[in-house]
Every structure is written in structure tokens, then in C-alpha cells.
Fold:
Amino acid sequence: MLTLEDKMIQVDPLEKAADCERALRLTIDPVYRDKLKNIREFWISLAYAGPFLSKQQFAKEAEMIGRLHALGRGPSLRG
Structure:
């Protein structure tokens, strides 16, 4: 069984950024778009920083961004 850390290490930040980009194409809400743009930038930053982070730090960062990303799908971020 995979631990949370193992699951977070398997996250592809660039794929998550692409998810944000796809969602941006589907929404017209300016507040939601701004939040998606910020989350996309977090994922891209993690992708570039990944090689310089320990597995634990990468997992921690991916988990935090993943939580923001998940919240971004909720109605509270759509206005």
C-alpha cells in the first residue's frame, strides 16, 4: 500500500498545470480564472524545483498545492 508521501511523489506537476490550463479554457468567471492561473503557476514552479527538493519536501509541496487545486474545484472559488 502506498503512503501519502509515495502518492505525492508520483504526482506530475506539469500534468496538474495542464489540468488548470484546460479548466481555464472552460470558465469565464474572472475570480475563478485568477485562482486557476495562480494554482497553475504553483504547479509549474514545483516542476522546476522538483529536482532540487528532497522526496519529503516535494511530497509536502505537492500535497499543499493539491489541496489548493482541489479547493479550486469547489463552488466557493467560483464566485
Observations:
- The first helix runs from residue 4 to 9.
